[in-house]
Design goal:
The chain has two helices and no strands. The relative contact order is 0.05. The protein has helices spanning 2-25, 31-67. Helices cover 87% and strands 0% of the residues. The protein has one domain. With 70 residues, the protein is mostly helical.
Length: 70
């Protein structure tokens, strides 16, 4: 019984230990890396917006044909 309780209590300790090691190894990106990330995110937003626009552009006429021109 004590061994089971010890194993249960060990899981959060290991999690906190691993998490603190991860945070300590992390570092802030430099300006060049930050700009590259911003460009990638911006490009993703533009592509997803364009895809959404195309889907909506196709959906409206198809929906009007199916519904009957309401």
């Amino acid at each position: 019984m004590a061994d089971a309780l010890q194993e249960i209590l060990e899981v959060p300790k290991d999690f906190l230990k691993d998490g603190s090691q991860f945070i300590n190894r992390c570092q802030k990106p430099d300006r060049k890396e930050f700009m590259k990330i911003c460009q990638a995110v911006g490009t993703g937003f533009l592509i997803m917006g364009f895809v959404g626009y195309l889907v909506k552009l196709i959906h409206i006429p198809v929906n009007n044909v199916l519904v009957g021109g309401a």
